[in-house]
Amino acid sequence: MSRLPIRLRLTLVFAVVMAVVLAGLGVFLYARLQHSLDERIADELESRSAALADAVRTGTASGLEPSLFRSEEGVAQVIGPDGASLFPSGDPVLTDEEVERARNASLAFERGGFYLRAEPVGDSIVVVGESLDDRDEALSALLTQLLVALPLALLASSAIGYLVAGGALRPVDAMRRQASEISASTSSQRLPLPAAQDEVYRLGETLNEMLGRLDAGLERERRFVADASHELRTPLAILKTELEVALRQPRSGDELEFAIRSAAEETDRLVRLAEDLLLVARSDQGELELRPVAVSADELLDATAARFAARASSAGRVIEVAGEPDLVVEVDRTHADRALANLVENALRYGAGPVRLRAEGADGRVELHVTDEGSGFDQNFLPVAFERFARADDARERGGTGLGLAIVDAIARAHDGSAHAANLGGGGADVWIALPTRLNGPDAPGTDRADVG
After folding, report:
1. Residues 326 and 233 grouped into a single domain
2. Do 252 and 322 share a domain, yes or no?
């Protein structure tokens, strides 16, 4: 039955329910009519039995009309103390056993197509009875009508149920047809919603929300591919130009070495860009592998400061480290170092003054801050700072790819954390990642984490 269409299944279920209801109704009507007819017969026999008992008590029973004692519709009899019929003459209606029982209490029962009532009156027994032919004919006629009417009613109700089920499923079918037409090129289309605010409407609304999320994901992927192509085009074009220039005419050894070094630099840039794109893609697909270990926050910051100390010194700047003691986080050391390195590199490239690294605890998390004293972020850039390929104007001028902060955000989210950016009141930028002190579930130290979606 599970392979049948929903409309047909609903109709079959409705038909089964209606069959049970109609059968119950038929049984009720039949039993009700039988009870009503039996009550009428019992009342009539009780009246006749009372009249005959009065006649027996007054001694006038022998003067009653013989037709009152036996007719096609009923019988009446007075049985004497010896068990013989007094009025009318003939065999008694009751058996010997029934006579003995009737002497002690009134009897009412069916036998031989008659409904009989026996009642003791002194030493005698008054017996009255009525034929059940009329009752049986009425019940038979009702049964015949029910056997004809109920199947017809079942067919009619099933047909109506089929139509009602079709009407109820029509919005679903409309959504199905529309869904079959939606593709990657028409992902902005949405499913039609019924006018009624019912379950189907809520289903369509939920599906439209899902389509909206998928459409947004597709748009991000399209933008990702377009931006990646744009970012790859420049170093590839430079690399191609350097190689073409080197091959165009005879060159000296120094000129060839310069061209090769330039090509190597562009190749390194391509490798870094490819690695960045791969990390972002793995993060989106939930495949960024983590090997978390417990590490001191101060140790993370000190290692990052030492890594960039020479570069900062050559630029006439310093890197300072401060923070609360005894702060420990569980992180993948490689990814955490990369996230902090991206923040420090941005501060050195786009900021000014000292670069300060600070760790502080907040709400069960550890925040790793990187601040500088430059001009800070453009207010219009802050809301999209961590989106991939998002770049402020000065970053575009200085050749940034727009993936640095996106990678920081991806690494933070992979650790069940978050990334944030703000401008300082006195000037400069503050960018930080908030990390839990302990990863949940299977992310214990020394294990791999594959699901970061």
Report:
1. no
2. no
Residue entry with tokens 């955000």: 409
Q: Which of 31-40, 286-295, 357-366 is the most confident on average?
A: 31-40
Cα torsion angle, 10, 13, 14, 15, sign = positive
What's the CA angle centered on 450, arms 446 and 453, to 5 degrees?
130
CA distances from 376 to 87, 353, 420 (A): 126, 12, 14
CA distances from 100 to 107, 147, 273 (A): 11, 44, 114
For residues 400 and 318, state if they share a domain: yes
Q: 319-323 and 355-362 as β-strands: parallel, antiparallel, unpaired?
A: parallel
Q: What single-letter amino acid sits at 102? A: A
CATH of the domain at 325: 3.30.565.10
- How far is 346 from 407, CA to CA, in rounded Å? 12
40-74 residue pLDDT tens: 999 999 988 898 888 888 877 665 655 555 555 68
Is 170 a domain residue? no
DSSP, res 365: E
Note the pLDDT tens digit of each residue in 296-336: 999 999 999 999 999 999 989 999 998 777 888 888 898 89
Q: Are 365 and 435 in contact (CB under 8 A)?
A: yes
Which of 7-21, 37-51, 357-371, 427-441 shows the lowest per-residue confidence on average (mean pLDDT)? 427-441
- Given the structure tokens 């923070």, which residue do they identify? 323
Of residues 341, 336, 343, the one with CA closest to residue 294: 336
What lies within 8 Å, CB to CB, of 361 at 6+ separation is 324, 327, 367
Domain span at residue 310 reads: 292-436
CB-CB contact of 117 with 129 (8 Å): yes
What is the per-residue burial (b if ≥16 Cβ within 10 Å, else e) of 318-341?
A: ebebebeeebebbbbeebbbbbbb
DSSP per position, 195-210: SS-SHHHHHHHHHHHH
258 and 298 within one domain:
no
State how far the Cα of 244 lies from the Cα of 238, in Å rounded to an integer.
10
* pTM for the full predicted model: 0.50
